[in-house]
Task: inverse folding
């Protein structure tokens, strides 16, 4: 799916106003000095030790005909948990292996002691090991019928109910939902649908409005472009120009060979479809870079240097060079993303990111509930023009999964922009993150609050503390903790009143 139109965009695989400033080095540098270099090592030492458990979940929470269950995986760390006055931080797993999310959500580990919190990471059905029909889960549309956000939220509710029963001391403790990206959407929606289960939610980089008629379809690609434009002179212009050059080479057999050799592709380009696929792979690469444009060396979607887009732009400084020079620059830019470790023998256009994400599952979700319109015009953004065409999108979905998307359903289900009757949700977004275009970036009420991180890429706030964190993300995290503490205090105060 998606490949034919715009690339399929796994969320993680993913805010700020497009005018956002890039790194404010002075403030953050001052902070590094304050903390000193030793803090980096110390932070990395936070030991992520957890136990792994499985809970039998009904495959279908909403019908009574299918009695079957599957084993949902979840992880627990109780190192800092206190029976007295403690809390439970519950990660609402998204489209991938839950251990990978656990590894990449250092924020929860960093705040566990302060909140006396038990950490729970719940895997989303149809991802990782939590496969309702085992190896057959993706083989038949009938088996996929239970892959919906509603079923996933119901799994979370049942699991919390189970934990409260099974672990003495948790019964009368507040639970907070936390998630990033699609997991952030789930955290927010969980608080909306099950407010009796969680006292609040932290929804990081959660594009709950990236759906039909809620935000302009070109916002996403505009933000990607802005990131490149601000990361180096002529950088976005060079990429914009590269498409024509690629098309030009792609119009002949010798040109295709030349491209395959010079981009050092694992499988040579042979057909116009291959060329299309190459461009979609590149597009996805530039998008992924925008999501993980973190201020320090990291390994989320790929191992990458600090501020990877700046590195990429070192190779794309001048759009007005010869065609072959421009392609050579593009090759070096791709190498920043695909060969930072120096291990790549060739560039594989079948891969754009970590294998920990479940692209099959997300492909299906994008074809059913998660219909996110994207478009580009090649003028305000650096991509080839592309209109959003629901009809062809739907046809692709039908071909692949035998289902047709329901673009309005998420809005019916979760309220679209009309969510002001809910309470206690923090929406955090980074201005560098293309998904921020579909996120909540302004307060909706006193308790539905937006936190914007000007120098943040995709849920930077959920990552571990790092000596190179910009000041803005430190502030965001401390505000998030403040809100969570307030919810916990309110919970215990209202318990006391009931007694
Ligand atoms: C999680 O982190 C551990 C420890 O660094 C590592 O061994 C493991 O491979 C990681 N797992 C995933 C799925 O990221
Ligand atoms: C940007 O491209 C122009 C036109 O080729 C070139 O003159 C200029 O030097 C480039 N800027 C940088 C910073 O390389
Ligand atoms: C590159 O050349 C084109 C046409 O000659 C010109 O319009 C454009 O401004 C140049 N780009 C830069 C960055 O100088
Ligand atoms: C990756 O980097 C290594 C080390 O610089 C280099 O030898 C190798 O050719 C690169 N691979 C590709 C595909 O460019
Ligand atoms: C390219 O990636 C695909 C998908 O991960 C994999 O199956 C294939 O073996 C890879 N090809 C090469 C040459 O590494
Ligand atoms: C919210 O709902 C009201 C009443 O149903 C409607 O008039 C309004 O247009 C909705 N607002 C948004 C932003 O959807």
Result:
């Amino acid at each position: 799916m998606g490949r034919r139109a715009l690339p399929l965009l796994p969320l993680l695989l993913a805010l700020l106003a497009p005018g956002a400033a890039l790194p404010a080095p002075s403030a953050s540098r001052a902070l590094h000095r304050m903390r000193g270099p030793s803090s980096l090592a110390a932070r990395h030492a936070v030991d992520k030790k957890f136990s792994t458990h499985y809970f039998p979940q009904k495959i279908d929470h909403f019908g009574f005909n299918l009695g079957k269950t599957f084993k949902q995986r979840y992880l627990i760390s109780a190192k800092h948990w206190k029976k007295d006055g403690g809390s439970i931080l519950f990660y609402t797993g998204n489209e991938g292996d839950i251990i990978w999310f656990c590894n990449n959500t250092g924020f929860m580990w960093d705040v566990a002691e302060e909140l006396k919190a038990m950490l729970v990471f719940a895997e989303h059905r149809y991802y990782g090991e939590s496969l309702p029909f085992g190896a057959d889960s993706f083989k038949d549309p009938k088996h996929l019928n239970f892959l919906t956000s509603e079923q996933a939220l119901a799994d979370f509710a049942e699991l919390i109910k189970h934990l409260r029963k099974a672990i003495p001391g948790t019964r009368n403790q507040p639970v907070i939902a936390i998630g990033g990206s699609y997991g952030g959407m789930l955290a927010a929606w969980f608080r909306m649908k099950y407010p009796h289960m969680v006292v609040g939610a932290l929804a990081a980089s959660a594009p709950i409005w990236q759906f039909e008629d809620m935000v302009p379809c070109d916002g996403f690609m505009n933000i990607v472009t802005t990131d490149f434009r601000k990361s180096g002179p002529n950088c976005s212009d060079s990429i914009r120009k590269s498409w024509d050059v690629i098309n030009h080479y792609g119009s002949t057999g010798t040109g295709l060979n030349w491209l395959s050799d010079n981009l050092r592709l694992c499988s040579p380009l042979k057909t116009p479809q291959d060329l299309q696929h190459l461009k979609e792979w590149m597009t996805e690469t530039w998008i992924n870079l925008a999501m993980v444009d973190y201020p320090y060396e990291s390994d989320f979607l790929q191992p990458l240097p600090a501020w990877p887009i700046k590195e990429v732009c070192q190779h794309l400084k001048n759009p007005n060079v010869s065609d072959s020079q421009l392609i050579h620059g593009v090759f070096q830019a791709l190498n920043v993303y695909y060969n930072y470790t120096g291990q790549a023998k060739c560039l594989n256009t079948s891969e754009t990111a970590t294998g920990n994400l479940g692209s099959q599952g997300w492909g299906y979700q994008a074809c059913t509930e998660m219909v996110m319109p994207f478009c580009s015009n090649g003028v305000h953004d650096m991509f080839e023009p592309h209109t959003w065409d629901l009809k062809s999108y739907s046809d692709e979905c039908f071909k692949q999964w035998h289902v047709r998307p329901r673009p309005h359903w998420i809005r019916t289900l979760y309220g679209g922009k009309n969510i002001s009757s809910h309470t206690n949700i923090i929406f955090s977004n980074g201005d560098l993150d293309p998904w921020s275009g579909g996120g909540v970036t302004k307060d909706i009420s006193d308790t539905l609050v937006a936190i914007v991180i000007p120098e943040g890429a995709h849920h930077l706030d959920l990552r571990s503390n790092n000596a190179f964190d910009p000041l803005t993300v430190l502030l965001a995290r401390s505000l998030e903790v403040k809100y969570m503490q307030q919810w916990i205090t309110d919970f215990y105060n209202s318990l006391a009143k009931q007694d």
